[in-house]
Amino acid sequence: MRITELSTLAQVAAVLAGALRGAGIRAVLTGGACATIYSAGGYQSEDLDLILQSSPTQRSLDEAMAKAGFARNGEYYEHPRTSFFVEFPRGPLAIGTDTAITPVEMPVEGVPVLLLSATDSCRDRLAAFYHWRDRQALGAAVAIATNHALDLENIRAWSRREGASEGLEEFVRALEAAKGASRRSGPRGPR
Fold first, then answer.
1. Nearest to 49 by CA among 73, 28, 66, 69
2. In degrees rounded to 5, what are phi and psi of residue 85?
3. Neighbours of 113 (CB within 10 A)
4. 5-25 burial, b if ≥16 CB within 10 A, otherwise e?
5. Fold for domain 9-115?
6. Distance CA 101, CA 52 (A)
7. Which H or E element spans position 165?
8. Residue range 22-60, pLDDT digits in tens
9. CA separation (Å) from 37 to 11, 55, 69, 71, 106?
């Protein structure tokens, strides 16, 4: 698969996963890119954040990214045929204060991609909402939760540990409203 002007974020993630795996580099897709994949179009990120789980040299990382068509420009990697850019934020892999994150591997465009679970992706977006009052992140968390069965008890317990009980209540209200709207606008039977 090659990246083109029409490539989706998921397609770019698949190309990157293949190139990095081929170079022996272990990296976990996080942030808004995960939310894009899990939200079924309810959220669209402009970048892909990958947390390194191995210790490649800068040269080997640059070479792997070049095989996917990306060139380093400062802290980012850019591709001439897509507006999506790639960043490797400093680890560890964490969501708020929780560093006990276990990534999952799932096929994206037929390629195994290492990424946050749907529950962890929701928590990641909630962390942005809780700590920075990012309303767009709240919307992404709701979109993920309406499209996937999540471990809501895990989310509740984590939210309490983050000191975000009020934010959790707002998330639950927004989720209930979104699910109610979905039921109301769903297919209708004969009258």
1. 28
2. -120, 165
3. 25
4. eebbbebbbbbbbbbbbebeb
5. Beta Polymerase; domain 2 (3.30.460)
6. 13
7. helix 165-185
8. 999 999 999 999 999 999 888 999 999 999 999 999 999
9. 10, 26, 21, 24, 11
Listed by start position, the domains of the chain span 9-115, 118-184
Angle between helices 135-147 and 31-38 (to 10 degrees): 40
pLDDT the model gives residue 41 = 81
Closest C-alpha to 2, from 60, 64, 81, 78: 81
Residues 6+ apart with CB under 8 A from 170: 138
Beta carbons within 10 angstroms of residue 90's beta carbon: 6
- For the stretch 68-112, pLDDT in tens is 999 999 999 999 999 999 999 999 999 999 999 999 999 998 999
Give the phi and the psi of residue 172 in degrees, each rounded to 5: -60, -45
- Rounded distance between C-alpha atoms, residue 161 and residue 59, angstroms: 39
pLDDT of residue 24: 98
182 pLDDT more than 80: no
Task: Please answer whether residues 57 and 88 qualify as being in contact, where contact means their C-beta atoms are separated by less than 8 angstroms.
Answer: no
185: left (phi over 0), alpha (psi -120 to 50) or beta: alpha
